[in-house]
Amino acid sequence: MIGLIVARSKNNVIGKNGMIPWRIKGEQKQFKELTTGNAVIMGRKSYEEIGHPLPDRKNIIVSRTKNFTGENLITVSSLKEALEAAGETDVYVSGGYGLFKEAMPLVDKMYITEVDTVVEDGDVFFPEFNKDEFDFEIGETGGEDIKFTRTTYTRKCHE
Ligand SMILES: NC(=O)c1ccc[n+]([C@@H]2O[C@H](COP(=O)([O-])OP(=O)(O)OC[C@H]3O[C@@H](n4cnc5c(N)ncnc54)[C@H](OP(=O)(O)O)[C@@H]3O)[C@@H](O)[C@H]2O)c1
Questions:
Q1: Residue nearest to atom 31 of ligand 1 (CA)
Q2: Does domain 2-155 have CATH number 3.40.430.10?
Q3: Torsions phi, psi for 107 (to 5 deg)
Q4: Angle at Cα 8 formed by Cα 54 and Cα 91, nearest 5°?
Q5: What is the Å distance from ligand 1's center to 92 Cα?
Q6: Element holding 32 (H helix, E strand)
Q7: Are the beta carbons of 30 and 115 closer than 8 angstroms?
Q8: Among residues 45, 65, 108, 138, which one has the fewest Cβ atoms lying within 10 Å of its Cβ?
Q9: Which atom from ligand 1 is nearest to the alpha carbon of 77?
Q10: What is the pLDDT of residues 87-108, one digit of tens each?
């Protein structure tokens, strides 16, 4: 299963100044639940923002300039190689923009957390996609000052 997991603002922002532009208690819980025991694919900048491999899952970093290695940590130079490295494990593409865009035609499911805020001056956005290709389900809501809603998009059929 190839999944994609993201949190985006109402105006489609996912990043600002190299960071995720909100901190909401509980917002990242789903990320941990889905990816633990599986594999995550992320771009070099997203990985550097986190600064360490995420525990108890395979961390596959895509970069052409750096080579991160360690326990449960490998670096590859393309999305294709990243998917191959995941093997049979469920894998979650976790950003940023370029990997989301490239993976979009391949994903079986997208877990999109809709964050109820508008981010001014965002500099990384979630790519546009064709909603008609997916079934859509609304899930849990959460957050205090800033609310969020989980949504899941499941691809209707594969070509
Ligand atoms: N809201 C969310 O859910 C979420 C999720 C993830 C990230 N973010 C935010 O998004 C921002 C980072 O995203 P970003 O799009 O700027 O950067 P990114 O995708 O994390 O990293 C970009 C780098 O990854 C490597 N890369 C990406 N695609 C590649 C490919 N197809 N082949 C080879 N290398 C590839 C390249 O590294 P080299 O330059 O080393 O070759 C590229 O410069 C941050 O602000 C982060 O906080 C938000």
A1: 78
A2: yes
A3: -75, 145
A4: 40
A5: 14
A6: helix 29-35
A7: no
A8: 65
A9: 33
A10: 999 999 999 999 999 999 999 9
Tokens of 21: 């532009």
- For the chain, where are the E strands, in sequence order? 2-9, 13-15, 39-43, 58-62, 73-76, 91-93, 109-115, 124-125, 134-142, 148-155
Farthest CA pair distance, the chain: 42
Q: Tell me, in angstroms, the distance from the centre of ligand 1 to residue 37's CA.
A: 22
Q: Is 141 in the pocket of ligand 1 (CB under 6 A)?
A: no
CB distance 21 to ligand 1 below 6 Å: no
User: Of 40, 78, 81, 74, whose CA–CA distance to 57 is shortest?
Assistant: 40
Asked if residue 79 has its Cβ within 6 Å of ligand 1, the reply is yes
Q: What is the pLDDT of residues 11-67, one digit of tens each?
A: 999 999 999 999 999 999 999 999 999 999 999 999 999 999 999 999 999 999 999
Q: Is 18 in the pocket of ligand 1 (CB under 6 A)?
A: yes
25 lines ligand 1 (CB under 6 A): no
Please state, in angstroms and rounded to a whole number, the distance separating the CA atoms of residues 56 and 20. 22
